Amino acid sequence: MLHRRSVTVALSLVFSLLLGAVPASAQSVASVVSDMQSVYDRQMETVDTYIVETNLYTSYHQKDMGDDGPTYRTQTRLKGTDASSFAANTTPSAAYGLQFDRLKQHATYAGTEAIDGVRCHILQVDNPSAVNPNVEENATSMTYYIDAERHVPARMVVETAASDSQEANPSSVTVRFKRYETTDGLTLPHRMEIQLNANISDKQRQQMQQMMEKMEQLPEQQRKQMEQMMGDQMNMMKQIMSGDPIAIEVQSVQVNVELPGDVF
Q1: For the whole model, what pTM was predicted?
Q2: 263/197 Cα distance (integer angstroms)
Q3: Residue 252: is its pLDDT beyond 80?
Q4: Which one, of 222, 34, 223, 205, lies nearest residue 121 by Cα?
């Protein structure tokens, strides 16, 4: 099963708004990534802390001046007990992210494509662990679709290898970044959709359906205990069976505010 870490790692750091796209014919991986890095650096100059509240969680972010330059530390607190672990760890601040130098070395430029009517540069990574060393071992490729005008991600797709296991194993995860808005210099997508595409047989799907039906027939307290014990596996099964994306909606953004003392 694709663990939540693979999505979390694939989605790291934060980018903002930068005007002026370069014609597609002149593009390369280096030029696309350099544009994104300029966006990131500009945003880092003015944003020291921020808090993002969504329908699923609240995330807290603080600039950290490390040896390799500034980055953001992030802490996420879930709302309730039913939120998906994927959504919980896919904070809008950490949602787009790339290791810039590694991406320049290991990605290839694959042209452009229209995503929701927006022309996007396509960056293809055939060795995901070379860009993100902590990515799940069964990840076989990552594809980034970068808005050619604003230099922010519009979509990311992580492909995973098929498994012989009897468990439900996602064959891909697609993350769509929508409704970019700027608050006090911080530009974030205010809606993200995470789509799990499972590589499961009809028999496996039937077994999952039967299991969920049996759990629905349990007394409420016993059912909740079972769901809590199964944790991510239950969330994954529900998502696979529904076929609907996990939707993350930003409700409020606070920039350069004091963070609670117990966050970090």
Answers
A1: 0.72
A2: 34
A3: yes
A4: 34
